[in-house]
Request: fold
Amino acid sequence: MATVNFSVRMDADLKREVEAIYAELGMNLTSAVNAFLRQSVRVGGMPFDLRLNEQQRETVLAMLEAEQLASDPGVEALNAEDALAELKR
Reply:
């Protein structure tokens, strides 16, 4: 089977961390990526569950709502003191 080069940019610290993990498992990063890709083909997608738990989903929705409110000229902004007082109620 012919092989091709595949280049991926990643955080240097992440690369060092995963290389250490895979070395403990007796494989290099190339072998690990190939295993991941083969398993992706076998299962027809990501080889692990990707979903937000309910708390993460609520946080994302709250962040989106905050962005919408921040860009709405009809919404009065609170200063930090007012926001803290509002949270304490």
